[in-house]
Amino acid sequence: MSTTPMIQFDGVTKMYGKVLGVNDITLALPPGAYGLLGPNGAGKSTLLNLLTGQLVPTRGSVQILGLQPRNNPELMKKIGFCPGFEGMYSSVSGLEWVTYLLEMQGRTRWEAKLRASECLETVGMQEGMRRPISTYSRGMRQRTKLAQAIAHEPELLILDEPLSGLDPVGRAQMTDLLKGWIQQGRSIIIASHVLHEIEALTDSFLLISGGRVLASGTAAEVHELLFKVPMEVRVRCRNGAHLAATAMEAGLVEAVKVHTSAGSDTVELTTRNASQLSQQISGWVADGKMIVFEMRTADDSLQSLFNSLMRIHRGEL
Amino acid sequence: MYEWKRSLTAGRLAWWFVMAAFPVAITLLILYVQHQEEEIPTEARDSVWSVLFYIMIPCVCTAMSVLLTAGPAVASELEQRSWVYLATRPNGIFWLLIGKYLVAFTWGFTAAALGATIAVSISNADSRGQILVAILALSFLSALGYSSLFLLLGTIMPRRAMVFCVMYTVIVEAIFGAIPAIINRGTFQFRLRSLLVQWVPLNENVKDDPFMSYVVGEGSPFMHCFWLLTLAVLFLVAAIVIAHRKEFTTAAEGDV
Asked: Quick one: which of A47, B165, B206, B236 has the fewest CB in 10 Å?
């Protein structure tokens, strides 16, 4: 088995004049499925442009499948890219568009047309593939973009917001399609700012913000990283002040915030050991010391991890 | 083929007809004026018509046609954000620029050929056949050269491609091309003018005019064709190299 990483960034920095795109990124990812998560302006587009060879690093080097991505025809045969924007020729049909791009991959016209037709059917475009792209809905354009990315059967698929613009049915279909792609053992990188889109496809991810990769690995690995990081537990209960005081006395929390309202209070507890605090609160409820309506740690949500990492990055934790 | 098919739009066809009609309209106007006022003297007819056709067809009709197609070739792909789809294909940028070049050449030359055929046929020049062949050949060379030039300028400065192309044409091709110095040898105008003098039936008085020795080159037509084609290839190669070296990111501002 090859030991060459699928993606290797070695001290990569990209500047746009005085604006920082990505900042000193070093990582090596083996083949697999990865989610690239980050808010708008985090550096996702820059990272994808570096991956596809559209940008040259200001410092450092990038290798994809063991090859330099910039102006590399060999690599371009092995990667499929679905950009976050549309940009397809609106006057031609989806079938013509995908056929044209396949011809650029070296297929004959006949082969390209046949394969384009197959791919467009795979993404659910059998009805509209012969109509001009200008008549397509956003979802249809998104499917056509995906078809052009997978048509030449690349080793690595790079998708920027692939589910954006799709209706719920379309999202489910596309998610199934991408799951099938991953199950075939192919590699994929999906950039998104919507966490559940990625969670549905893979649990390996990179969190990026401010041009830096804040964390990488599986959700469990990132949890380990966060073991000593204060987490927030939110409790809705009858007597918020009592809960807050008891938790402080027990030495389980570092900060509390009580929101009082008619009928119930909401207490935000900041703790370094969320699981112990949860067990303790459960014990107090069982002993009849307090009445709790709801307790939420959001520990298993990627959003929680992301928020914590962002706060660390900003120096708030 | 794909680029050609895609370029067949109503707007582009309308421009093609306008370009082809331009020399015909001017020729009709000149014939009308001759009919009303005074005919061109017989001995000067071929010279006058040759120069007029040269200005109208290879210089204006062909150059304008290819300017409209090759000038914004890169800018249009960047503006509609299709560049990245092509750039992430093996040799995608190379084939894109070659396609744009061939389409610009084809639009430019065909408009000029139609315009020349009609305009020369309806003129009252004595050597219409010889003039037509010369003008067609000059239009062919003009389309080859200016397509590569405008493609290069559009690649260097895609955001202001048309303005840059027009400015370059006026300053370098028109002004520098007419300066009797070594600098004019690097322009298409100089080569085309030198070929014109050798290929059309010009009056001996015109050929022997001392001024001509400054603005046209000596040497065989083969040499002028060779240098013109060399310049065209150089510009085309430069456009391809620059397109590969530049970072044409299509991310929207703020995407980072």
From this structure: B206
